Amino acid sequence: MGTTSLDLPQEELKRQFEQLKTRQDVAKLLQVSDYQLRYHLYIYPRDKAYTTFKIPKKSGGHRLITTPQTSLKIIQHKLNQVLSSVYKVKPSVHGFAIQKSIVTNAKRHLKQRYILNLEDQDFFPSINFGRVRGLFIAQPYNCTKEVATILAQICCYNNQLPQGAPTSPIISNMICARLDSQLQKLAKKYRCIYTRYADDITFSTSRFKFPHRLAYFSQDSETFVLADELITIIKDNGFSVNLSKLRLQNRYQRQGVYSFAIPIPKHRQDVKEICIEHYYQDSEIKRTDKNNRRLFLSDEFHSKSGKHLSNPQLNTTEINKFKSNQLKIIDDKVFDSESNNVALPKDDFATYIYDKEEGFNDFDFTAFKEVFEIIKKILNRHYS
Fold it and tell me: What is the pTM of this model?
């Protein structure tokens, strides 16, 4: 078998990998004879080449570990060195990568308001021989079919990626490269941070509400579910989600919290992006406090200049509120002629209503009835 590792620089390993054409080339790169390679792939019984055992999971149950015997393990270890020279780790990947760990993965989500965790179901077993072979044939590796077949045979056992083989971690990352790219774009689209540690996927955000385009509370099933866009990406990449491990947390509590898309009230049917203040009537939203501050609606201002349409002494610098052509609530950066900010923060608005402050003690909550019903269902489900 010779040496147990390859004593070649990364650049040379990458160069030789790109020139592979045949099984003999693979054997030469791994510094074994063609006969030794054929023996371990085709002659020696595969059932004797691996040892399988179980280890307990922290969450309960057992994890099946399948490790190769010494000679095959050496071959896989060498191949792992080669693959490390051609696979470029994506920034979002923290598992099975140099100078990355579960700690670096967690640090990316520090101080975020919400954290969504989900786990791929049967992660390693779902990566079968065909997927591994196809990985090497496709870009950017562009191996010949013969080489791709040999590499897949080295890495797979019983038509799947064995958890416990030296090559399995890096192969799983290579398989997930497209998944990582697509989920990274999805996270950016909804102003989130995305990371993956092996089969654990995490999204986090500092937004006031968790994006319902990623996950939400379903009124029909009365369960917390992933949105179609996220599910489609995961399924299109050959994986499925372990729904029992799905959880959404906020920074103030460790237990799971629910997020749901609030229904659109009848008087806001033309508004697509709803926030809780939209449930009040316009006349209620525009109530002023003792300091002459109030909430404003985006349609009160000129969309380009930010000037108030009926009060020329007022203007806002919240121009970003006008980009979507939707009715937005403005609770900051509305200035009078003396540069005083006369916008009322949403938190103060809510406090006035809760405390029944003068001028805020006669609001109509009829539109909230459907929201209260959803919350009631969540509470009943969570505490029953």
Answer: 0.67
